[in-house]
Amino acid sequence: MAISNLQETLLMYAKEKSRLNLQFNDIQFNLASATKKTLAAQQQYNNKMSNYYYMYKGNMIFQDEYEDLCYQLEAEYEFNIKNIDSWEEQLQLDKETLELKLNEINANETSFRALLKKNIQSDFSYGGGQGQ
After folding, report:
1. Within the chain, what is the greatest distance between any pair of CA atoms?
2. Does 118 map to a domain?
3. What CA–CA distance (Å, rounded) separates 117 from 107?
4. Which of 12, 25, 80, 125 has CB atoms 3.0–4.6 Å from 130's, for a disulfide?
5. Number of domains within the chain
6. pLDDT tens across 61-115, in order?
7. What range defines the domain where residue 107 resides?
8. Is residue 132 part of a domain?
């Protein structure tokens, strides 16, 4: 009976590890997505700044408008980057939490495997000489 309970516990750990690994993969995907969004935001910012520069280049009449647009664009860019950075930090925390949970499960699984091995050895005699 003890052996079947230990085996059931090990199966539960395997299922939990599988679930956590799936979450871990989702987090890894989202981290890659955050990096991609950061690069896209940077590229968009660079393109708009370049366009504004060439649109207003040399035209002193619209210099104040140009500076306002640049200020707005920079504020928007910084806001977007801060949001992405915040999301990325949360993903990193989630990743570390999952790693801790996985390490805990692996340690428990190792303990239960050793206990299962000990129970199997005590329940069955090897070579017909148990107790001699």
Report:
1. 104
2. no
3. 15
4. 125
5. 1
6. 888 899 999 999 999 999 999 999 999 999 999 999 999 999 999 999 999 888 8
7. 2-113
8. no
